Amino acid sequence: VTAPRRERFLDASGRAYRHLLRLYPPAFRDRFGEDMVLLFQERLRDAAASGRVQAIAFWMGSLRDVLRNGLAERRSVVRITPRPPSSRRVRGDFLMDAAKEVRFAVRRALQSPGHTLTTLLTLALGIGANAALFSVVNGVLLRPLSYPNPDRLVRIWDDAPGGTAPFLAVTAHNFFEWQKQEDIFESVGAYRESGLNLLLDGEPMRLEGLRVTSSLLEVLGVEPEIGRGFLPEEDEPGGERVVILTHGLWERNFGADPSVLGKALAIDGEPFAIVGVMPKAFSVPQQPRAELMVPLQLTDDPGRPHFLRVLGRLRPKLAVSEARSQLERVAERLALDSPAQRDWSITLLSLQEATVSRVESLLLMLMAAVGVLLLLACVNVANLSLAKRSRSEQEIAVRNALGASRIRLVRELLLESLVYSFAGGVLALAVGWATLRALMPLSRSFLPRHAEVGLDSTVLLFTASLALASGLLSGLLPALRLSRVATTRGGTAGRGRRRIQRLLTIVEVGIALMLLVAAGLLARSFVALSSVDPGFRVERVVSLDVAALQFSYPDAPARARLFRSILERFAATPGVESVGAAHRAPIGGGASFYPYRVEGKPEPPPEQVPAVSFKAASPGYFAALGVPLLRGRDFTPEEAWQKGGAVILNQTMAQELWPGDDPLGKRLRVSRTGPWLEVIGVVQDTRERGLDEDISSAMYLPYIEAPEPSLVFIVRSRTPWTASSGLVGRLRQAVREIDSAQPISDVVTLESRLRDLVAGERLGALLMGTFAGLALLLAAIGIEGVVACSVAQRTREVGLRIALGARVRHILWMILGESMATVGIGLAVGLAGTLLFSEALSSQIFGIAPNDPGTYVLVSAILAAVGALASLVPAVRAARVDPAITLRSE
Amino acid sequence: MAHSRPSQPDPQDLLPLTPVAFEILMALADGDLHGYALMREIEESTAGEVKLHPGTLYRALSRLLSGGLVQELDEPPDPDSSDSRRRYYRLTALGRRVAIAEAERLQRQVASARAKRLLRGRSL
């Protein structure tokens, strides 16, 4: 046993022993408790020193010792000291009563284990689902961002004329202008994502990094844990090469060694001095994967496109809406100065909203769903409790006759349901924890603030309140109802209760229908989304990123040579069917836009120059992705890597520019003075940004016309990737043979990229489906319970009917008919409710109308069938009644 | 002091002592001890035959304290060297007289056992 482990064992033992001492009377404990614990620990230390067995033996001896002496001491105290006359007799009695009633309630619960189990499971699932969803809502939507004064943080975008691109990245020019607005901002910072090529321990690797302005940390209000932030002069073009690490990278690759400060880290083949390490939980907003930061060293180059992400910290007491209108006025003024800016505006949102707005409606929809589910669970518990209590009505009436007050009966019944809900709440935490564990991996790819979700004290408090509320909700109605039994005559009470039970069943069926419709719509929407043809084939394709080392390949020709030789080497690698490359990944890679002019058309006014999303591509890109070439030809290697001068359009763009005309041989250019590019081919449209987005114009430029620093290679294998895991190794090897310092990164199959693209929709459908399934189950349990109870009470009537010659079939129909009438009303109520709320779903569904009749009919049929099945079981039991027995039973 | 009482009881009324109580009194006869030392002392003087657990020890101590046979020290005898959390115990004059009385009682019993030839050895 190692020393720290033994200390932990001793500590834990001491704590356990302290608890055991509660067996002694308090006075004794107060006087000797501390000494005893101390002594126990010393003795245990002695025993542990001689061995594990001795320690255990000593523990056993101590256990016996405490048990015997503690109880003996208690007895002697009781015997010696007469009980002091209590001045708090009344309160004591009340507490005693309450304790007795709790014990009584627990005992009663244990007497009917079936009912108790159903109730507990119902509550645990209902409350647990809420606990899990609330943890997500709390961590993502409710909790303020983890920066100082987060309400003053905003994110700002450029806003293209005509609302075509309201969330556009920002030009350097605008960023510098905004930085001057000291009336609005305390500080403004910008960054852009950038994969950084590192040499760590001789191993080339590429990490997610950020190029940031020196003001960014000031905006966020976070200081490095050790070292310092970037200095303004380091942020000037040509400034020092410095880097700040995240805590994770520091721990993982530098052993959390504080002496890393000042040491050099090889980034893109050049040494960067480490000047700081960020605190543990820090990440730049919306960049949880970024592991290191280098200065952005921004120049006010008017030719640069929109490429910056901009964050601002507002002046104190300035509202976000006020800041927005002030900055809009600034944008108008700028537009007057430069015609190119005309009609451009800005979008400004609080950082919190910018971070979470994408998932807000999905989360709120799911939260509403679990809320409704819990309501259903409570109704179900109330209903079951009413049904079960039919038998105790007699008892209650008798007790009332003997003088038990109504308030006391209500209290007793409420207490019972609180006991249930408390136990259910404890179980719910386990359910919630398990749900969350299952949920989090599924949501990693799309949920912002993913790391901040967890079961914390807020969630515990929420769960506890829900348990209390459910206890009251599910207990109050039966309590009031049953206690009234006491005051009415027994005969009429049953009918009143049955009416309430029917009402509750109607509510249950209605709620279940609403959840089922929502689940049905989401499921069909997900299927519709997944079956959208992206326009390319994803099977057996991986994408991998290569970002050319900045200092080894400083200019476009050098990069082109590197990428060309990688491409040729890949193509020659055994097992590769085809290969191509473009500067953005085909799925989820985002988009870049270029303005363009068409030859032979007059130069449009500046604000009307059209922009189109483009890709810088290599030869073979379309073949590797399986995008059919409709007209013309692909780029030649010379066009792609050296000459340029060509362009390939998608179908939509070709038809828009030259409807009914042959686009081949036509020319356009991507800057006012650039060379003319000849259209050499037309390819089929693809959906690369999102399956739910409309197809729009797109063009493909030869790499050399837009020589981006990184390319995403598309490799189609001859065999499925699982079977050819050696291929990735061969591809890595191929790159290493060209340049051993050049890393590759983000090796992913396109299939998994496609899965990630619809991960939110999938999870939404999955969860809603689970909730609806639970709702269906609860409704079935409710219907079954109510029918069973009503049948049990009418045994005599059924027996009499059978004795008088009624057929079993008639009895069945009678019972089934009654319960189906209830279900039918429930369906009608549910349909009305669903139609009211379905519009709220429309933002979440794709390719299907929120009031899609097919879904409604199907779902209603399922619910009716389940309802019939649930009533059939007790009905059959009733119809088998032996009339002789029932008539004798009275 | 808290333990001093208006009328000292006769030691004879308190006999016989439980074995544990007697061992405690004897251990304290040589000087003030804290719980751990007390326990070690008893173990050593009985050659490990009497093994005490804290519950037994403190229950007996509580009896002895309330009977005025043992008193608790307000301060540890050597505040520098010892853990200030520890409480030290000292034999009172009454305790000493009770211990002597118990020892004499036992001696008488041993003598009569010898007289009955239940024990071998030199007769006193």
Question: What can be said about this structure in brief?
Answer:
The complex is a heterodimer of chains A (890) and B (124). Helix content of chain A is 55%, strand content 15%. Chain A has 25 helices and 22 strands.
What does this structure look like?
The complex is a heterodimer of chains A (890) and B (124). Chain A is an alpha+beta fold and 890 residues long. In chain A, 55% of the residues lie in helices and 15% in strands. In chain A, the strands form three sheets. In chain A, strands 13, 14, 15, 16, 17, 18, 19 and 20 form an eight-stranded mixed beta sheet that branches. A six-stranded mixed beta barrel of chain A has the order 2-3-8-5-7-6. In chain A, strands 12-21-11-22 form a four-stranded antiparallel beta sheet. In chain A, β6 and β7 form a beta hairpin. The longest helix of chain A is centred in the middle third of the chain and has 41 residues, at 490-530. Chain A is globular and about 105 Å long. The two termini of chain A are 72 Å apart. In chain B, strands 1-3-2 form a three-stranded antiparallel beta sheet. Chain B contains four helices and three strands, in the order αβααββα. The longest helix of chain B has 23 residues, at 93-115. In chain B, α1 (19-29) crosses α2 and α1 (19-29) crosses α4 (93-115). Chain B is mainly alpha-helical. Chain B has helices at residues 19-29, 35-45, 54-66, 93-115, and strands at 33-34, 70-72, 88-91. The radius of gyration of chain B is 16 Å and the shape is globular. Classes of the chains: A alpha+beta (890), B mainly alpha (124). Chains A and B meet through α2 and α3 of A and α2 and α3 of B.
